[in-house]
Design brief:
With about 200 residues, the chain is mainly alpha-helical. It folds into two domains: about 5-150, Winged helix-like DNA-binding domain superfamily/Winged helix DNA-binding domain (Arc Repressor Mutant, subunit A), CATH 1.10.10; about 155-199. The protein contains seven helices and two strands. The chain has helices at about 55-65, 70-80, 90-100, 120-130, 130-150, 155-175, 180-199, and strands spanning about 105-110, 115-120. A two-stranded antiparallel sheet has the order 1-2.
């Protein structure tokens, strides 16, 4: 998707070793796959991705500017910021990091661990300064997702699940439990699962 400028290294920045691509390369074109779509449908029922690839790029760049981190730490950081609501997939994060590196906005930092930490470059810092308001808005959106998560944390569903569990346990422990009844219960549960899927 962004391959046209993947290799525009016109800035004379240090480029690192030839083997600087890392991680699962297969996910290179993983942008926009449904696996990172959040149920952020609230207002007006419109369904949208949490971030498009440009927005994710800015979020990752800002997190790296705050402190050098590797891919997995970045995924966890976003998960923490949204209270677990949004966990971007490695198939989206790793190609974005490769792109940021190709654009000279991040570089590998010297790290002791097996995983490579990334640090922000002067170009990356300049871009963040230029896009300051947009970055602030993106982080506000992350915080909003966390509060939305708290509001709709599935309380009623959890209560119903507990109730179901209690009923099933008491049924299974009862002396009158017959095979036929077990099949009926299973059938009711299958039926409920199908109805929920169709919602």
């Amino acid at each position: 998707m962004h391959s046209s400028h993947h290799h525009s290294h016109g800035h004379g920045h240090r480029h690192g070793s030839p083997g600087h691509h890392f991680g699962p390369r297969g996910g290179r074109h993983g942008f926009g796959r449904g696996d990172w779509r959040g149920p952020d449908e609230g207002r007006g029922g419109r369904r949208r991705r949490v971030f498009d690839s440009n927005e994710l790029r800015l979020v990752l760049l800002k997190l790296i500017a705050d402190q050098p981190r590797h891919g997995y730490e970045l995924i966890r950081a976003i998960e923490d910021l949204t209270g677990g609501f949004y966990v971007p997939s490695p198939g989206v994060v790793y190609p974005t990091l490769t792109l940021l590196q190709d654009m000279g906005q991040i570089e590998e930092a010297a790290s002791d661990g097996a995983r490579k930490d990334f640090a922000v470059t002067a170009d990356g810092t300049a871009l963040l300064a230029e896009k300051k308001e947009e970055v602030a808005a993106l982080f506000a959106r992350l915080a909003e997702l966390a509060t939305a998560r708290e509001r709709s944390d599935g309380g009623p569903i959890r209560r119903a699940m507990q109730n179901l569990k209690m009923v099933l346990i008491s049924r299974l422990e009862s002396d009158e439990t017959k095979t036929e009844m077990l099949h009926q219960v299973a059938s009711i549960l299958d039926d409920a699962a199908q109805k929920i899927e169709r919602l």
